[in-house]
């Protein structure tokens, strides 16, 4: 019964979506406020209906209702409750429902935080988002129904893929989707602005917080995915340039470019047309990612089970939404004005230089990901494009971008003084260069790449300090603390986000430069040494989990004779699908990770064991977290908080109630 | 002296078990295998390297590569061996060929193109904006308005 | 071209490629050996360990080499097609038992029928690697000079045999 309620709720949501995507936009075009006012309740209604559907599916999982096909395919009676609920997004149909649900969450948020927008703008934004949700709801109701019944019901489910039975994997899709789908708001803003013909600085100012929040979520989502791969897959890797990983990284690159471009348009009114195009691109890449993951055109461990009908539907949807928005762009963009001018060396130019580099990087990732498909489609043979390609192409593109990151905040708007700039950066550059050259030598292994990585990271931090010092000099206040408090949160956000990148680069550079690995056969009592730590194998015992049996190894770790820790890697066999999985044991530390994974039991009672010493590896995800925090800090800036508080206060009570009556 | 050794053995915490042996018989060759296998594709997996895959074919291919390393074949010879049997698909680093020129040059073409577009756009916009200099008539109006403003405030 | 139409054009081209991509199989690996000499080998026969089989013996004939195994479900699917081909006598199909147990293979053939005049045994899979085999079943059409002219990846079906294999065999015989 409950699944049918969920199914019906989706059908109703589709009807509401049809209304939401047509009436308000038409109303905005002809100036009919009654039609425009339909947008808000429609969006809220959709949120409610999809919430009902989502909860119905959750109930089916909690209740172990194996008469629902999707539940039977991804759950099991032995699966613990939290994983049963996470299985909602464990496969294709359910993850689409999650996507749609998150879209309605963003829609709802737009209805809450858009009172300062003109009605035409708001109705167009919600209308566009309604169009997107209409597509996804239609997709679900036609070829990907999560509520499809299985008659007769299965005796027990096939179980959630053991790789997904893990906290990281539980959080990764929701965070990722909050990011991906969040870019639909920036997209909707851009389309609304094109439709209305009013591309001005105000539009950019309104879009910024939405874009930044979505970007924060996407950053965390990608970091979670990478961290999960690191500890779950058992070989210590954290990024493979897999097509599905790239599918999430491309919107991130475009989104980062968009954040910077919006800053230019907001502050200087310039390059509006480019910013609009970026906003369209960021969300288009999200949709493209959705296509790549579910259509079967590319091979990946992450890809969902495929079906040509589904691929065709998404492609058609892509063509309509992105094609339509690019047609609108080609039609309306030429009429938009130029905005303020600025010289070739100015902060605006640096920010746009950042854009060129990020978009070139994004284009390269897209090129590498789709190239095998291009060649195959043209019957020119089959190739593979993997990490060696992406690594050799991405780093040279990002290096100048990171140099710009140091220079940009120090450069004046409109027209910069080059010699003066060089003077201000002298110290930072000198310190960075010397430290970057010396540090690897001190640590025992010098390679050019190691130095380059450290140079970039130290450059970011030293230029940040220079920038902060200059900022403090221009700020009022008695004493350092007072002046630090006066510096705006958006500035701190920028500094923090940039430093997050520095932390990330340190992590990547140090791990690649100093990690060590050992593959040994260990009998009980034998020891192996790696990274200055001694590992002693104390045997393996059989253990029972809720839905698996495992061999758990015990390792005693010591350093310089002193006890450090105990580690318990496991080799699990999940009963339902009889799948074997390695559960590595990781001892995380600020400066290093110790990583042990059990291989195979060998003939003489020994085990093959793989040991890793990975210095600074957690800085990779720590850096991402710091980046996201920087974004959050920037969004909590006074001007947004004041604007929000002001619009709630400015409107007199009588008008507020009157407005509510009309709505 | 024997009793001293016996006492040492009884002391807790002293483990006289040996150092674990490396899994591979020849660690040097194994390192070379790893170096190669990381850039080779497991043909039957869903996007995994030859080094990481547990598939039977991957194990067979690793065995082949080990044997070739033992025969002192060069990296290029080993790669050629695999490519002649499985095609370029087996390489994660696409070879530089006529069909992959666009792939390898593409990123830098994109960068160069973007940079040129940016500089051109900036120059063109600069010209368009400075060309619209204000005329003398407009200058006089500005003076007028400014003096009015001063009077008012 | 108007620079505002450029994004749309690029997108349209990409969609075109993606649409074609939907019809392709990204996991199928075409063989670089088509048009090259069939790799030589000398392997023991399944039904008579003392004898060997080598492609040298087949020079002057057009023939099929079929890689199969008793543990392979696709081989079961294509088996009737091979039996039909053997019965019709249109072209000889020689078998290569790939990474299999001899007893299992013999039993399998006894149970389902043996379309092969000779079955060679590739226990370790080395000859398979030489032929670029990455899964079973795979079938090669080899001409009179011992050159591979076609590779079928996956099970053969009646349609492929009728439309691709037999016409090719006829053409190769005429040369």
Measured on Cα atoms, how large is the radius of gyration of chain C? 20 Å
Total domains of chain B: 2
Biggest sheet overview of chain B: none
Order of helices and strands of chain C: HEEEHEHEHEEH
Count of DSSP H/I helices of chain B: 6
Q: CA-to-CA gap between the ends of chain B?
A: 107 Å
Largest interchain contact: A-B, 59 and 49 residues
The largest sheet of chain C, given as strand count, sense and whether it forms a barrel, is: 5 strands, mixed
Helix content of chain B: 55-70%
Shape of chain B: elongated
Instruction: Report the β-strand fraction of chain C as a percent range.
Output: 15-25%
Average per-residue pLDDT of chain C, rounded, comes to: 93
- Mean pLDDT of chain B, to the nearest integer, reads 83
Oligomer: heterotrimer
Let me know the CATH homologous superfamily of chain C: Glutaredoxin
Distance between the termini of chain C: 53 Å
Compute the number of structural domains of chain C.
Answer: 1
Topology:
The complex is a heterotrimer of chains A (663), B (153) and C (175).
Chain A: H1 2-30, H2 33-36, H3 39-62, H4 69-74, H5 81-86, H6 92-112, H7 119-143, H8 167-196, H9 201-232, H10 243-268, H11 272-295, H12 308-332, H13 347-377, H14 387-407, H15 418-443, H16 448-473, H17 480-486, H18 489-514, E1 516-522, E2 527-530, E3 533-544, E4 548-559, E5 562-567, E6 570-574, E7 579-583, E8 585-588, E9 592-601, E10 607-615, H19 618-635, H20 638-650, H21 653-662
Antiparallel strand pairs in A: 1-10, 2-3, 3-4, 4-5, 4-6, 6-7, 8-9, 9-10
Chain B: H1 2-10, E1 21-22, H2 27-37, H3 56-70, H4 75-86, H5 101-131, H6 136-152
Chain C: H1 6-21, E1 43-44, E2 52-53, E3 63-68, H2 73-88, E4 93-98, H3 102-112, E5 119-122, H4 126-130, E6 138-142, E7 148-153, H5 158-174
Parallel strand pairs in C: 3-4, 4-5
Antiparallel strand pairs in C: 1-2, 3-6, 6-7
